[in-house]
């Protein structure tokens, strides 16, 4: 929880007093105008946007789904209502691009049959296991049944039965990368039906989901094994029934989709200013009664972007110009920002980038100011000092895991603002109630608004 909600106001008042007493009348006037506009970020409007973005109709906003399209239309309608202009290089605010994404077609199944007692135990998706489909030689769809073999050492596979389900404990993986681990299995000549391996990479007791697809080239893995992550407790449950049989059923289709970034333009008197962006897609529906609503990641950044756009649109006599971009396909591998950056629509020498990704965490953690390129370093460091003056604990990060990275790669000066609270990250627990402090989201939006009202950075 943001500890001192009044501190940004107190700091700003102190700055105003110093400006009025020590600076020229022109600078003092600018400071007064900034103060007036910053104060106009409205919490209730952020709450309204969050409600839509995390709604049942949005259904987790997975790129290529009806829920994602619903939010595309919502954002375009909001841009229109705010008076943003459709740039010449897009149609009705929509910048279309093609991408690949794994789409779940049915709920996944993992069941254990005890042949002695004829009892069946059904493991819980997300809590006990999750399918692993991010490599081409893994099978992403199909049903297998049969006996399983517990493996302690992946480098000693000679005794493993052919065409079995292989189950590896954590020591069996050791410190090897997944690539080495699976290369060892496949180079052994064994053709397992499925591979289950212990991986306790969970947040709040739920596996971290990801629709990552950059390294997938097609549904060409029909002869490969089905692969699943399982918890240590799932492994122990299997160990208690060594003569049992497993049923595994998954259906995840790598799908080619055409989706849209939503782009609006707010012209000033000069053709220079800022690109303010946030991705709006998330992980979607697990089809088992759980949905990844993505409140912190990244309904929060999208809602803040809309509110910043509203205040700037209502500001008279704007000098700077602004692009507002709601990126799609970020979760699958920064698809939307890369597609936009590579088209060369906007001059990198005229527009700097502020990327809002996960802002307003409910935990009191340092805010990350992330930039990867040397040409962005001074810009990011200056914003770090700026946000600290608003009472935030913040630190520099060199992560390229969000949409500022493709923009930097194409020459833009850029940084990302990230409240990387991992407690609920990429799980159904990322809800507004659990994961987001809306007062903190508002305070960050106010600091960004102050920042982008001047080009003196």
Main traits of this protein?
single chain, 457 residues, alpha/beta, Aminopeptidase, Glucose Oxidase, domain 1, two-stranded antiparallel ribbon, 13 helices, elongated
CATH topology group of the largest domain: Aminopeptidase
CATH class of the largest domain: Alpha Beta
What's the CATH H-level homologous superfamily of the largest domain? Zn peptidases
| Measured distance between first and last alpha carbons | 29 Å
Please identify the structural class as seen in this structure: alpha/beta
Q: Percent of residues in beta strands?
A: 15-25%
How would you sum up this structure in a few lines?
The protein has helices spanning 7-22, 25-38, 43-53, 66-82, 170-173, 178-187, 232-239, 295-313, 335-343, 377-388, 404-409, 432-435, 438-452; strands at 94-104, 109-114, 119-122, 129-131, 141-151, 165-168, 194-198, 202-203, 206-207, 226-230, 245-266, 273-279, 284-285, 291-292, 321-327, 351-357, 367-370, 394-397, 414-418. With 457 residues, it is an alpha/beta fold.
What is the strand and helix layout of this fold?
Blueprint: H1 7-22, H2 25-38, H3 43-53, H4 66-82, E1 94-104, E2 109-114, E3 119-122, E4 129-131, E5 141-151, E6 165-168, H5 170-173, H6 178-187, E7 194-198, E8 202-203, E9 206-207, E10 226-230, H7 232-239, E11 245-266, E12 273-279, E13 284-285, E14 291-292, H8 295-313, E15 321-327, H9 335-343, E16 351-357, E17 367-370, H10 377-388, E18 394-397, H11 404-409, E19 414-418, H12 432-435, H13 438-452
Parallel strand pairs: 5-6, 6-7, 7-10, 12-15, 12-16, 16-19, 17-18
Antiparallel strand pairs: 1-11, 2-3, 2-11, 4-10, 5-11, 8-9, 11-15, 13-14, 17-19
